[in-house]
Write a structure and sequence with these properties.
Largest sheet: 7 strands, antiparallel
Radius of gyration: 18 Å
Helix content: 40-55%
Number of domains: 2
Number of helices: 6
């Protein structure tokens, strides 16, 4: 049974390949973490389960984080939730009986250790437009998420690169903070979630690759 003190909201995401995901976002204030103690920049634990409508794939799940300011999921946690058989029934019938136990394990093992890494990123500032642009280029070059340059003959930022750069600047103004690696990671994450039509596994793989790349730049 679910602990009566645990509250969550759900959202569903569909793919054209017949797969779908259901996100369980913990909605209790006790689970909320504010990055750099900024009331505008809060994250909560999120549990994502993926499945297929025809039952051809096994139900699988992993934990991550939900960032409220941009409504994006951050899929960098290592804790994976797996089931040994295929499920054709609704995801709720798989998740609900065990959600309280799984949340407790995640909070004990990973949540706060990863949150500390977020703080490291938030403390690493990007000073000026040129440094922001250099950051975006380095992440693009190392992760291969997309090409930084507009073309082989034009070294200026591509339209997608400009979106990332503008997002970093926009969020720094919104949060009244200096541009930093935390905002940089989230700007790439927003592109990954809203600009790319990729499978859930590929999306998660890119998310983790981007996060590790940015974290290395902070250390």
């Amino acid at each position: 049974m679910i602990n009566a003190d645990i509250h969550y909201i759900t959202r569903s995401i569909n793919r054209n390949d017949g797969s779908f995901a259901v996100d369980y976002i913990l909605n209790d204030d006790s689970y909320e973490v504010k990055v750099k103690n900024d009331i505008k920049d809060a994250i909560r634990p999120m549990l994502r389960f993926t499945n297929s409508y025809d039952g051809s794939a096994k139900t699988s799940g992993h934990f991550g984080f939900f960032r409220q300011v941009c409504s994006n999921g951050l899929h960098i946690a290592n804790m994976v939730v797996s089931f040994n058989q295929k499920h054709t029934k609704g995801v709720n019938e798989v998740v609900i009986p065990k959600i309280g136990e799984m949340i407790g394990q995640f909070m004990s093992n990973e949540f706060y250790s990863i949150e500390k890494k977020f703080e490291v990123l938030a403390a690493s500032e990007l000073n000026g437009y040129n440094e922001i642009q250099a950051f975006v280029k380095k992440v693009c070059d190392e992760t291969k998420i997309f090409k930084f340059e507009a073309s082989d003959k034009n070294p200026l930022p591509s339209s997608t690169s400009k979106v990332v750069i503008d997002s970093i600047i926009k969020e720094s103004l919104l949060l009244e903070s200096k541009p930093n690696l935390w905002l940089g990671y989230n700007a790439f994450n927003e592109i990954l979630h809203n600009g790319f039509v990729k499978s859930f596994d590929i999306q998660k793989s890119f998310d983790a690759r981007i996060f590790e790349t940015v974290l290395e730049m902070a250390n």
